[in-house]
Write a sequence for this structure.
């Protein structure tokens, strides 16, 4: 997936002279996860460059560049570090079009690796996506495979509104079944790994039905798409798995049609539980599909603790937590 | 219970700054050092920042105690240009006066005057090109007035009426005017600092000729954005001019809470390795000269400058506070640097290019102009009297295209309006 992200950035730098990439270590070195490897050498130092270590500055400068007419794509090295830039995102980027009545806009895509499962401890594992879906004026996008990562990132960069693009770092180099004690499977063996070299885009706001099924709808995104798939394959439950891909705007039509068909809904995310995006999904489903539901909407999430280092796998919503939730929702 | 003393040291003490004067005290500013004009002469615009540290602690002045313009910083403006500067400052003062009254009359919710600080927006804007981008804080309405932005647009915004270009979305005075090089004002302090740097970096990376200028107050230099911005600007040698309008007060907190007891705001530049100037902010010619110097530096790839305008906030922070509750009543009268309008007027009279009679006549004419425009603006409505933008505009411009959830919420809001006003209800 990291190569697909690199390719999306390369394609956009080539196609659009307004695209600028900046962030800590993204230039000469090519990023701590190699997402920008080779881009500075190819596109030059004024298009792809390193920045001071100030997320407030990185995002604030991005807002100013966007106001000038550029299309900045700043990287925040870990989503856990995005908080110093929050005011610039929430109060500035997200509001620019509205507060100026279209006088100034902010076509900026903030890329950031997020999520755990890499022994990153509490400062390299967080999933803060619901903080951004709660802010009006920002789009929140999370890919789950290389093909989507490239197409969604290109669409995000071309979007004329600010986008937060969270990349699940656990699956940068291969999908993850949730069984941390099994060998890592490379992307090359996976169906979503074939990535065209050229330009293509995947429209924001459209979910993907990863597996069709009749028994229960599972709404999920990012790393958890693969964990859910593995558990469904093992248990044989006829689940319909929906990879949301964009949390805001949400593909409510796909969700509604699926839940009305299956009559059951489980929402799965790695982020902490309380006020997580799963709460919004559960509310939307009960508002729209209440009379179709045969069981309460089930939430499978991380716990409401900081992401622990040594007990990472007890925190992670892995196969055991998912299997218990499937048992529960199918019982009713 | 205090800890037992260790090694005979006195106990630790927490220092909480306290202004020199509070209500009831007599203001005495005799300790403020006002150096003679040209105490620190104007350096070459290509000078290295390390060679001009003194200027961050001095005070650039042009108008002498007898109102004559002297020294190497004198920008040498002709009488027409000086009269234009005076006219803009007087117009700004008249505008502020009428809009403050409008708030008191209940025609709008909020206003902020720039009384005493007019030079820091008018004289600065006069040095810039029309297509340079200004990133103001909330007290630089003088930029728009100097750039001939239609005053009725400003009033429409203040009234949030149906003529408001910003569709009644922003608190009064938070203008946006891209065509006039005036960036959208935020209520969040100093967020415009890194944005100005980003704009300037974009301009530089494109080989453009335009530069950015940004303003903030003394209090808001404490924000992290300020320091992020100065770091970025220094690192990339961005063509940006940072300005700190040190008007001594951040609502009720004096500048000591931003660190002024220890050093000047201009001296913040030194740690970042950029040029820093401390300027008499009530001397319109000194403000003009400093800004022109910094603009020339920026335009010739000599990098950013931080300018501190040493001035005084003559009125309350806004219509929402009463300064007599936290500072000595006569501080402005005692302010050792005088009033910017009076000083420029005296200078022009001294040149034989102006008179008290002309000044009085101009003041009346400008006030009439403002009143006439105000009447026109009020035809578009005043706040809370129904002549606002259509209800559904509330949901526009959150995104370029309205997503389904906002369409749903918009329909709900329109139904609520129908429930409230019945069948007679019509949009607008």
């Amino acid at each position: 997936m990291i190569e697909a992200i690199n390719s999306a950035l390369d394609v956009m730098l080539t196609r659009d002279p307004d695209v600028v990439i900046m962030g800590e270590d993204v230039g000469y070195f090519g990023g701590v996860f190699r997402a920008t490897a080779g881009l500075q050498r190819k596109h030059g130092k004024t298009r792809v460059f390193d920045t001071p270590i100030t997320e407030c500055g990185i995002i604030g400068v991005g807002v100013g560049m966007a106001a000038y007419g550029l299309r900045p794509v700043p990287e925040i090295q870990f989503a856990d570090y995005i908080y110093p830039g929050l005011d610039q995102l929430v109060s500035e980027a997200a509001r620019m079009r509205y507060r100026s009545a279209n006088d100034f806009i902010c076509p900026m895509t903030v890329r950031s690796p997020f999520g755990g499962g890499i022994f990153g401890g509490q400062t390299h594992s967080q999933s803060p996506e619901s903080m951004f879906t709660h802010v009006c004026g920002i789009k929140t996008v999370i890919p789950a495979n290389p093909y989507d990562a490239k197409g969604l990132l290109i669409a995000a960069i071309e979007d004329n509104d600010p986008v937060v693009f969270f990349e699940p770092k656990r699956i940068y180099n291969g999908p993850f079944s949730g069984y941390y004690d099994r060998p890592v499977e490379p992307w090359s063996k996976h169906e979503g790994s074939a990535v065209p070299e050229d330009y293509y885009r995947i429209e924001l706001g459209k979910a993907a039905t990863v597996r069709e099924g009749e028994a229960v709808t599972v709404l999920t995104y990012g790393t958890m798409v693969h964990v859910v798939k593995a558990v469904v394959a093992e248990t044989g439950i006829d689940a319909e798995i929906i990879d949301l891909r964009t949390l805001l705007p949400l593909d409510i039509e796909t969700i509604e049609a699926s839940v009305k068909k299956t009559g059951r809904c489980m929402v799965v995310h790695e982020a902490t539980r309380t006020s997580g995006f799963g709460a919004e999904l559960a509310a939307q489903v009960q508002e729209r599909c209440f009379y179709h539901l045969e069981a309460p909407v089930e939430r499978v999430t991380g716990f409401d603790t900081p992401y622990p280092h040594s007990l990472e796998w007890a925190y992670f919503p892995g196969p055991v937590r998912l299997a218990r939730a499937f048992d529960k929702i199918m019982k009713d | 219970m205090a800890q037992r003393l260790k090694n005979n040291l006195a106990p630790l003490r927490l220092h909480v700054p306290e202004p020199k004067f509070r209500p009831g005290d007599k203001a005495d500013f005799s300790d403020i050092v006002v150096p003679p004009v040209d105490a620190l002469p104007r350096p070459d615009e290509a000078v290295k920042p390390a060679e001009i540290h003194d200027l961050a602690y001095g005070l650039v002045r042009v108008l002498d105690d007898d109102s004559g313009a002297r020294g190497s910083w004198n920008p040498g403006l002709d009488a027409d240009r000086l009269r234009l500067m005076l006219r803009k400052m007087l117009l700004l003062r008249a505008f502020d006066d009428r809009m403050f009254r409008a708030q008191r009359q209940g025609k709008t919710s909020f206003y902020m005057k720039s009384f005493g600080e007019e030079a820091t927006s008018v004289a600065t804007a006069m040095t810039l090109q029309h297509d340079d981008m200004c990133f103001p804080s909330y007290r630089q309405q003088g930029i728009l007035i100097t750039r001939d932005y239609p005053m009725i647009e400003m009033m429409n915004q203040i009234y949030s009426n149906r003529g408001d270009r910003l569709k009644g979305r922003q608190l009064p005075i938070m203008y946006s005017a891209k065509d006039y090089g005036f960036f959208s004002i935020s209520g969040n302090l100093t967020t415009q600092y890194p944005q100005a740097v980003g704009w300037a970096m974009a301009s530089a990376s494109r080989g453009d000729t335009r530069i950015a200028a940004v303003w903030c107050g003394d209090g808001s230099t404490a924000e992290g954005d300020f320091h992020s911005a100065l770091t970025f600007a220094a690192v990339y040698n961005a063509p940006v001019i940072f300005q700190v309008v040190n008007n001594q007060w951040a609502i009720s907190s004096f500048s000591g809470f931003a660190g002024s007891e220890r050093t000047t705001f201009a001296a913040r530049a030194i740690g970042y390795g950029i040029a820093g100037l401390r300027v008499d902010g009530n001397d319109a010619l000194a403000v003009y000269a400093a800004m022109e110097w910094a603009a020339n530096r920026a335009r010739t790839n000599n990098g950013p400058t931080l300018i501190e305008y040493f001035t005084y906030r003559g009125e309350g922070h806004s219509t929402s506070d009463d300064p007599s509750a936290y500072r000595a009543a006569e501080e402005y009268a005692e302010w050792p640097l005088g009033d910017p309008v009076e000083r420029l007027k005296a200078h022009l009279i001294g040149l034989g290019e102006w008179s008290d009679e002309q000044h009085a006549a101009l003041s009346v004419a400008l006030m009439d102009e403002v009143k006439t425009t105000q009447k026109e603006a009020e035809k578009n409505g005043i706040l809370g009297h129904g002549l606002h933008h259509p209800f559904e505009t509330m949901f526009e411009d959150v995104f370029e295209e309205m997503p389904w959830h906002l369409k749903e919420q918009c329909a709900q809001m329109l139904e609520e309006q129908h429930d409230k006003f019945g069948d007679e209800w019509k949009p607008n």
Notes: Strands of chain B lie at 133-135, 212-217, 240-246, 249-250, 253-254, 275-280, 305-310. Residues 79-104 of chain B form the longest helix (26 residues). Chain B touches chain A through 46 residues (CB under 8 Å). The two ends of chain B are 66 Å apart (CA to CA).
